[in-house]
Amino acid sequence: MAGTGVFAEIIEGEVYKYYADGEWKLSSSGKSVSIVNPTTRKTQYKVQACTQEEVNKVMETAKVAQKSWAKTPLWKRAELLHKAAAILKEHKAPIAEALVKEIAKPAKDAVTEVVRSGDLISYCAEEGVRLLGQGAFLVSDSFPGNERTKYCLTSKIPLGVVLAIPPFNYPVNLAVSKIGPALIAGNSLVLKPPTQGAVACLHMVHCFQLAGFPKGLISCITGKGSEIGDFLTMHPGVNCISFTGGDTGIAISKKAGMIPLQMELGGKDACIVLEDADLDLVAANIIKGGFSYSGQRCTAVKVILVIESVADSLVEKVKAKVAKLTVGPPEDDCDITPVVSESSANFIEGLVMDAKQKGATFCQEYKREGNLIWPLLLDHVRPDMRIAWEEPFGPVLPVIRIGSVEEGIHHCNASNFGLQGCVFTKDINKAMLISDAMETGTVQINSAPARGPDHFPFQGIKDSGIGSQGITNSINMMTKVKSTVINLPTPSYTMG
Ligand code: G3H
């Protein structure tokens, strides 16, 4: 159970502590932040409301800890990460329980998130050992005008203190996707979890403590974004920010100093369906891609662009599958669970009502109870409807019927997002042309968009983000190349 057993020390009374300098602490503010359970809409947990002074202290210790961590042999860093991964998996149950209560993630998916996170940490350790164990050796005489008098040796060095800000929908997995690369590369890590998801993150961080990471190397600071958000992201002690979330990321990038940024800010992933597509495969992927975790994934299918001649048939197949989705509490492992907050449910409802007023066809009756919204497919959506462009982050999915592939590509590219997209066709040549034409970070051919497997590159263009993620890219992003040039008094040619 969350907050018990090995996790008993991370809670005092009913309030979870924050983690700094290798210890679980109470904030000097004496205040806490409540975490509302999306299902019951009642306070489920409380976490510390940390102060700016506490942020300053965390930054100081992170800076000191990083210096000696960078001198820790790579194999030892990897060993500790493997240990943390094993401990995390061992304690998957209480962490998953927190995910169910804080963000209403279906019970089985919550466990999967923790296990996937353990695997991700181990992969970081493996990849880091290979990637950081080698550099480059360059000679000068390949550039015009040079003799072979200079040898350049390059290696990858850590950036310093990495600030990780994951979103509510994968608080554990998208935290470790930043923590693993940062630590293996020799950085220290300050984690600011989302409010909903903070308790799962605190448990996850404790697994790193149990693994024996040096004090101060990892910290987890909780609190109100309004009080410590800007203070953290603009803090002079931060050398890199890795953020996943919404529009806030755009504000962070505008305010951040001259430091590397890794940003993933959502998407409006289009699913383009051609006449020759296997419609059963498409329907199955629309259900998985559009409705898993109630559509609260940045890579969810968020608009279907289907060629008119097969639209009726596809809509019927999707409708039949929507009817089979179970709706209810995450504890029962239902397919559709309450969305994260009342404001989110209100926003989704606003998009749905706008579409209704403008003449969209509802394939199911619109139904909502509290934060629970029943799955809804909206047919005959037109570009003048908000839902054609905006990201609902909920179980509602628009269908736009298109007269040509070009029309579909045009809609996809007119979006301010550019995360992923997908195309369904049996013609690989057409699929490649469409993939090349789609202005998105990734295009999936004959499958729904998805970030994983977690070592694949993952990136968005336009408002969907900055930089590329995936384990290898994240390790590279959280390092800098350092060169040492050996200057010889006379040219030297090997075996010359
Ligand atoms: O919500 C954003 C996540 O990066 C999506 O990850 O494709 O594994 O669901 P996923």
From TrEMBL:
This is NADP-dependent glyceraldehyde-3-phosphate dehydrogenase. The keyword Ion transport does not apply. GO terms for cellular component: cytoplasm. Its EC number is 1.2.1.9. Belongs to the aldehyde dehydrogenase family. GO terms for molecular function: glyceraldehyde-3-phosphate dehydrogenase (NADP+) (non-phosphorylating) activity. It holds the Pfam family Aldedh. Transmembrane segments: none annotated. It comes from Penstemon smallii. It is found in: Cytoplasm. Gene3D superfamilies: Aldehyde Dehydrogenase, Chain A, domain 1 (3.40.605.10), Aldehyde Dehydrogenase, Chain A, domain 2 (3.40.309.10). It catalyses: D-glyceraldehyde 3-phosphate + NADP(+) + H2O = (2R)-3-phosphoglycerate + NADPH + 2 H(+). It comes from the Eukaryota. The active site is at residue 264. Keywords: Cytoplasm, NADP, Oxidoreductase. The keyword NADP applies. It is an enzyme of class 1 (oxidoreductase). InterPro entries: Ald_DH/histidinol_DH (IPR016161), Ald_DH_C (IPR016163), Ald_DH_CS_CYS (IPR016160), Ald_DH_CS_GLU (IPR029510), Ald_DH_N (IPR016162), Aldehyde_DH_dom (IPR015590), ALDH-related_metabolic_enz (IPR051020).
